[in-house]
Amino acid sequence: MSVLVRTIATVLAAAFLAAGCSLFPSDKDETAGWTPERIYKSAHDAMIEGNYTRAVKLFESLEARFPYGRYAQQAMLEGAYANYRANETAAAISALDRFIRTYPNHPNVDYAYYLKGIVNFREDQGMFGYVYEFELSERDPKLMKDAFAAFKELVAKFPDSRYAEDAKQRLVYLTNALSMYEVHVARYYYNRGAYVAAAGRAQQSLVNYPRTPANEHALDVLWRSYDKLGLVQLRDDTKAILARTYPQSPYLVGIPTKPWYKFWGSDIYSGVDTGTDAGAEVAKPWWKWW
Asked: What is the pLDDT of residue 10?
C-alpha cells in the first residue's frame, strides 16, 4: 500500500509542477529575432526618454548577441552613459575601461576618457552636492585622483578633442581641490597636536600643487607647526613668505567671521589657531551655544 501511495504522490507532484510552470510567464528575450539595428535604436530611444534601466538592458543584450561591429562598440559607450545616469557608476567605469582597452584607436575614444572623468567627478560630489555645496576638498581624494587622471590623459592624447577645453577647466578645479584636501588634513593634524604630520602635509600641498589658492592656507599651517615644534628660523622664514606672497592674508590681518545665516558650505578658517598676532578668533556659529 505504501508503495502505491508513494507512486500516486510522485505522479501528482509531477503533474502539479508541470501545471505550475504554465502559471508563471517565461523570461523570454524580447529582442529574439531582432536585428542589431533594431536593438540599438530601441536602446537609444529608451536612453533619450530617460528610461536608463531599459536602455542598459538592451545595450547589454546587443553586446552579448552581436559582440562585433559598430553597433556593439556604440552600445558599450552609450551603455556606460546609461549606467552613469542610472547611478550605476561602477558598471559605467568598467564599461569605459573595457572600451578604452579594446578600442584604443576608436574615433570616439576621447569621449570614453572624458566620460570616465565625469563619472568620477560627479560621483565624488555625492548625492546632495548640488544642493549643499559640499566641497571635493573635504572628501576622499581617490575619486578626485581618478577623475584627474582621466582628464589629464584626455588632454595629453587628444589636445584637439572637442572635450579637451572642458577637461582642462576641470583639471584646474581638481588641482585646487586636491591641494586644499592636503590643507584640511594638515589642519586636522595640527588641531590634534601632531605638528610634525601637520607640517609634512602642508609641505606636500605646497610642493605638489604650487601656485594654487591652497598655498596661502598651507603656509599658515606650516609656520604655526614650526612654531609649536620650536623651529624658530623655519617659522620666521615661512611666515615671511606668507606675508610677502599674501600681504592681506586673513591669517595676518584678522580672520573675518562668517555671517550667522550662512551655515552651509565649507569654511577653511574654521578651527584655526589664530594666536595673539593673527586677529580675533573665529566666532562660534549662531546655533552652537555650548
From this structure: 57
Amino acid at 54: R
pLDDT grade, residue 274 (50/70/90)? Answer: very low
In contact, 204 and 170? CB cutoff 8 Å: no
The x, y and z cell numbers of residue 288, run together, are 552652537
Query: Residue 22 has which C-alpha cell?
Result: 504554465
Nearest one of 103, 115, 27, 112 to 72, comparing CA atoms: 103
Q: Are 58 and 43 in contact (CB under 8 A)?
A: yes
Computed on alpha carbons and rounded to an integer, the radius of gyration of the chain in Å comes to 29
Percentages helix, strand, coil for the chain (3-state, rounded to 5) are 70, 0, 30
Using one digit for the tens of pLDDT, what is the confidence trace for 226-264?
999 999 999 999 999 999 999 999 998 876 655 544 444
Cell of 277: 598676532
- What's the distance, Cα to Cα, between the start and end of the chain in Å? 83
Task: Answer for the pair 99, 106: CB distance below 8 angstroms, yes or no.
Answer: yes
Distance (Å, rounded) from C-alpha 125 to C-alpha 141?
11
Could you give the CA distance from residue 227 to residue 72 in angstroms, rounded to a whole number?
62
Q: How far apart are CA 72 and CA 66, in angstroms?
A: 6
Alpha carbon dihedral 253, 286, 125, 171, in 10-degree steps, equals -10
Backbone phi and psi for residue 8, each to the nearest 5 degrees, phi listed first: -60, -40
Cα dihedral sign, 189-191-193-199: positive
Grid coordinates belonging to 6:
508513494
Residue 45's CB is within 10 A of a number of other CB atoms, namely: 13
